[in-house]
Design brief:
The chain is of the alpha+beta class. It is built from four helices and five strands, in the order βαβββαβαα. It has one domain: Beta Barrel (OB fold (Dihydrolipoamide Acetyltransferase, E2P)), CATH 2.40.50.90. Strand 3 and strand 4 form a beta hairpin.
Length: 113
């Protein structure tokens, strides 16, 4: 089942760290019961979810490990997501180890936050 994660935007296929983000998600959810709570809907009707895996939140896991960007348009008031991304940037974790990583919305040509 495909689930869109709320408040995070992971690298697109072909971008650096796209495979690492995919592997992290698969490792976190493989043969594990997860709970997905709808948090928001997009203008196109897509639902966005916060995914709980045991006592961890998958959305936060990706940010904490530098495998996704905080989506400021979707979750503009999320201080937690902002802090998690900033800590990953400061520690140069994941995609933040690269000089000037390209956000997925730029990669897709959408403009973005």
């Amino acid at each position: 089942m495909r689930v869109e994660l709320y408040g995070v935007d992971a690298p697109e296929r072909g971008q650096p760290f796209a495979d690492a983000a995919t592997r992290a998600v698969r490792a976190a959810v493989f043969r594990t019961e997860v709970r997905a709570r709808e948090k928001a809907s997009g203008p196109d009707g897509r639902s966005f979810f916060v995914v709980q895996v045991g006592d961890h939140v998958l959305n936060e896991h990706l940010l904490r490990n530098g495998l996704a960007w905080w989506d400021r348009q979707q979750a503009p008031r999320s201080d937690r997501y902002r802090r998690l991304e900033q800590r990953a940037r400061t520690a140069e974790r994941g995609l933040w180890a690269r000089p000037e990583p390209v956000p997925p919305w730029t990669w897709r040509g959408e403009g973005g936050p």
